[in-house]
């Protein structure tokens, strides 16, 4: 079986790839050149990445098309243990672009604990250059640091003695294994500063805790600094930083996370005093986005945001950070990679921006096409975890469409990509529903910038349904946050329908406060399907609010007018009589203007 995005891929290519499962490779080689030739040729024909997953015996156990590195679970079950490598190496193509491992590749390598991750680029349908990375093992523990070699010309791939490399890596684990003990979750201390914000510092830190948890870190303590004035060198002041250093020691924490953006110098100074990795809220959010991104567009956007955020901060890298890497578990571009190849970063940013530009053009094209079909677009916006995806899925299900369900999960930022589906409104008219990334307070500016093309879906929609988690104590503040992000991306003056979701679990007091503050909200439960028909009706009313009804009489000599009206989907009723055609239409002012001469009852 070939996994991934097979849409439009010719059957012969799929068969050719399937045959590779029968081929035995030399286990000492990273990959045999015959196999590499085949995947590079197919990859460049279909212009998609192809990934091979090879086990230690040299057998290909999984093949994927597209750009995600999820190996099937059976394949991974061969060796799944916190502190061992997976026993699987991943060789994949970069059909257009460099042979350089991308941040997504590095992230996959770390998360899946691959033996090795190699990328090969292609020229004239043939393998051209390659680079590969592997995890560093130190003191018997797999480090989250990645060592990268290359880029080399592809002819050198034969020189990589793969088994030798792996054996010497793993020797380090087994020699030390009895001393190491269990691999723990990272432990972190959160630090916030009281400020004049919609949220109290406690609420803000609770949210930061959820973010840390989402990123895989356990919060062991929260510190609030009431000083209220930001110290340029130490953010919280050097005295408080010393206190945190002691706290860190006694609680054996590995990371300190600040609830704000820190400058490169602040990070370095704080690390020096506290003696462990220091990260800020933005880095944490970017980490989570890097973990979640699925589509090529999403991945590029996250990588761009990370690079742009880190570039000016790299200068002041302290000793600790440069050894251990950026965020929780070092997701995204490994700091090592950034260190060695700082000069590549700017090129990389340039390339990514160009690629994003192409994707954007394509998106614009799709949008144009949709526009010419006159199908209105409704997008769901809202705070992360409000229930946007659940609602979108339910509405699709009700109107009979449930394929390609969007991931809904009780975690922050489950959705990073915009996905659009067609559903029917109560009157039978079509509407496109579009689900988007959730918003959050202090959404990093770099992210908003990078995600603009995804968020454009919101800007270009006819109506926005602002989904609110009415069971959340901070619902009001979250509404304000979402409104200000909407304003920032240029969607502030759109028609907005407020949907108070999760009324099944929200307490009455919470709802009545929202009710009094925002009188026009629809109270719904996506999960329990409460009031969804009311919401749909409201959407219909909003979408077609600008529409006008009219009666026309069209003589048989002008039947082309009838086809024009049908093309624009505005015919409600038509009667063919002896003298001509009587038509009831419901349409925009524009279209009515063009057929005004035929109007018989002026509205
Ligand atoms: N009780 C209850 N839970 C709900 C309701 N709607 C959604 N949820 C739950 O809320 C959680 C988040 O739902 P999602 O649909 O993933 O939220 P989202 O807004 O798409 O989140 P992001 O994609 O992260 O921005 C899930 O666990 C849902 O099951 C509801 O009406 N009632
Ligand atoms: Mg979602």
Shape: flat
Mean pLDDT: 80
Q: Describe the biggest sheet? A: 7 strands, mixed
Percent range for β-strand residues: 15-25%
What is the tally of beta strands? 21
State the end-to-end CA separation: 61 Å
Oligomer state equals single chain
Q: Which blocks of ≥5 consecutive residues have pLDDT under 50?
A: 175-183, 316-340
**Proportion in helices:** 25-40%
Please identify the structural class as seen in this structure: alpha/beta
Number of separate helices? 21
C-alpha Rg (nearest Å): 28 Å
- What hetero molecules are in the model? guanosine-5'-triphosphate, magnesium ion
Number of domains: 4
Main sheet: strand order: 1-3-2-4-5-6-7
Give a short overview.
This protein is 40% helix and 23% strand. The protein contains 21 helices and 21 strands. The protein has a 7-stranded mixed β-sheet, sandwiched between helices. It has a 6-stranded mixed β-sheet with strand order 13-14-12-15-16-17, sandwiched between helices. A 4-stranded parallel β-sheet has the order 9-8-10-11, with helices on both faces.
